Amino acid sequence: MSNGGKSLSNKRVAILIEEGFDSFELTGTITALRNADIVVTLIGPTLKSTPKDKLGTTTATSELAAGKASMKDFDALVILGGHASERMRLRHAMVDLVKDAMVATKPIGAISHGPQLLISANVIRGRTLTCWPSIAIDIKNAGGLYVDKPVAQDSNLITSRKASDIPSFTEALLRALEQSTTDQNQP
Amino acid sequence: MSNGGKSLSNKRVAILIEEGFDSFELTGTITALRNADIVVTLIGPTLKSTPKDKLGTTTATSELAAGKASMKDFDALVILGGHASERMRLRHAMVDLVKDAMVATKPIGAISHGPQLLISANVIRGRTLTCWPSIAIDIKNAGGLYVDKPVAQDSNLITSRKASDIPSFTEALLRALEQSTTDQNQP
């Protein structure tokens, strides 16, 4: 369904960051979203936290603390992989943001190990997902239906396997945001 | 039960290694086992593979390829954590070694993220385990009973949470090896 050429410039997307993120995933996602005039906000464990990427060479800076963030202020949530999602699982405020996005049926994008946070939020039972292959069994044990493809979309859940899937991943995410714009404009 | 002062010098323990291992866990475990005169063999994805530890500063060298290893040649198996177990899950030969050790009821020690490999081998249903807290939910989803303590022992399964649990972990492992010696000497 087309959005009739509507701009996505009124949209806000939250990206969760933590120590050990994959910098290709972060950069690729931010670039695609900003190219569509979307406002991107990096959410960390605290305000101005500065996690390093998994290679220890790049640093990101969070603009908002997870505990102060509300999904009411965002149209979609993105969970990056690398070693970051492993740490996000232990952050209750981050797990709660995932639960809130699910309840509001807002698009949630999770890539590589990102779906670990979906497991911790207990939101994947009966849902079709993809992920980095090492956690496929954890997805299945949590009740998810694992598929191996560049992007899997099941309602508001958009998942990908790895950094090289970023083009498919961001395309699906943008389409979901366009769709939500169209839905909002329905009579 | 005491082993009556029997030596453990006839015992052989296999330690699985892969890229991203925790060097404190590796060094601590090797030291404790060698102090008890146990022969330690490092098993990697290939012979003479040289994985780096998770900080990228230490390298270990494998003495045997997982595909060439047989649990018949070892009295116990150790699975280290860090980011290594995440990679081991994708090595069928390593998953098979875990299954073989379970069938033979030989002691299996797994620390921090090491229990991820136990999940992949599908051997924890109804068993009590501990692990690094971020994967506790994966343990529960796989049918395991998660406890938070320095060492959990359930029959041949010995698990610990983190590098600082190594003294409790190796003590339980040595006790299990002594026990198996005693059992072998039963009439």
Domain count of chain A: 1
Tell me the radius of gyration of chain A.
15 Å
Q: Regarding quaternary structure, how should these chains be classified?
A: homodimer
Estimated share of beta-strand residues of chain A? 15-25%
Largest interface: A-B, 16 and 16 residues
Number of helices of chain A: 6
Order of helices and strands of chain A: EHEEEHHEHEHEEEH
Helix content of chain A: 25-40%
For the record, give the distance between the C-alpha atoms at the N and C termini of chain A, rounded to a whole number: 16 Å
Which structural class do the helices and strands of chain A define? alpha/beta
| Apparent shape of chain A | globular
Q: CATH fold name of chain A, please?
A: Rossmann fold
Mean pLDDT of chain A: 94
Poorly predicted residue ranges of chain A: 1-5
Q: Mind telling me the CATH class of chain A? A: Alpha Beta
Largest sheet of chain A: 7 strands, mixed
The beta-strand count of chain A equals 9
- Give the strand order of the largest sheet of chain A, numbering strands 1, 2, ... along the chain: 3-2-1-4-5-9-8
CATH architecture label of chain A: 3-Layer(aba) Sandwich
Description:
- 2 copies of one chain form a homodimer.
- Chain A is of the alpha/beta class and 187 residues long.
- Chain A has a single domain (12-184), classed as Class I glutamine amidotransferase (GATase) domain (Rossmann fold, 3-Layer(aba) Sandwich), CATH 3.40.50.880.
- The first copy, chain A, contains 6 helices and 9 strands, in the order E-H-E-E-E-H-H-E-H-E-H-E-E-E-H.
- In chain A, the strands form 2 sheets. A 7-stranded mixed beta sheet of chain A has the order 3-2-1-4-5-9-8, with helices on both faces. Chain A has a two-stranded parallel ribbon with strand order 6-7.
- In chain A, helix 5 links the parallel strand 6 (128-129) and strand 7.
- In chain A, helix 1 (23-35) runs parallel beside helix 6.
- The A-B interface holds A 56, 83, 86-87, 89-90, 116, 119-120, 133-134, 137-138, 141-143 and B 56, 83, 86-87, 89-90, 116, 119-120, 133-134, 137-138, 141-143.
